[in-house]
From TrEMBL:
Descriptive protein name: GNAT family N-acetyltransferase
Organism per entry: Shewanella metallivivens
Domain of life of the native organism: Bacteria
Residues of the N-acetyltransferase domain: 1-163
Swiss-Prot/TrEMBL keywords: Acyltransferase, Transferase
């Protein structure tokens, strides 16, 4: 198993995993997904096992207390915080601890780069999962309230403060 930055040839597998994992929302387009990668190519990652992509994480700089709208292309923004836009594990690889490994890797990278923290929008009932990993609800900004309207009704913004 290896965790590495996304390359152009990984996108068919990433899009397939996204389609398999998100049943309560319409999967984002390739252009939208790739905009996160283009905004921060070194922080967007895959897990590869036996030459197959089994998980991915799209992470990019974004302001604390805010999130981009769903299904919206983004551009690079300088920030002391990161946004974990999407992390998905192939159904065939779930239950192997890959999510924990990928999250640990992202947190380690952010800590090394002295980022203040990592925000995310939990969907599909994942709020408890993220809270078990130290993410806490945060007061939404005005722009975050607008962005959350583009997500399913159960969407919740969470933030992990890093020391």
């Amino acid at each position: 198993m290896s965790i590495r930055p996304i390359t152009a040839s990984d996108w068919p597998a990433i899009m397939a995993i996204q389609a398999q994992c998100y049943s309560e929302l319409t999967p984002e387009s390739l252009a939208v997904m790739q905009s996160k990668w283009q905004a921060s190519p070194t922080t967007c990652l895959v897990i590869e096992q036996a030459k197959h992509i089994v998980a991915y994480a799209l992470v990019h700089p974004w302001a604390q207390g805010d999130a981009p709208s769903l299904d919206t292309e983004i551009a690079y923004k300088e920030s002391n915080s990161w946004h974990l836009h999407d992390m998905a594990i192939s159904p065939a690889a779930q239950g192997m601890g890959l999510g924990k490994q990928l999250l640990k890797y992202v947190i380690s990278q952010a800590t090394q780069l002295t980022k203040h923290g990592i925000g995310l929008v939990a969907v599909q009932g994942a709020k408890d999962y993220w809270q078990q990993h130290g993410f806490l609800p945060a007061a939404p900004s005005i722009t975050l309230k607008t962005a959350l309207n583009t997500y399913p009704a159960d969407a919740c913004y969470l933030y992990l403060t890093l020391n």
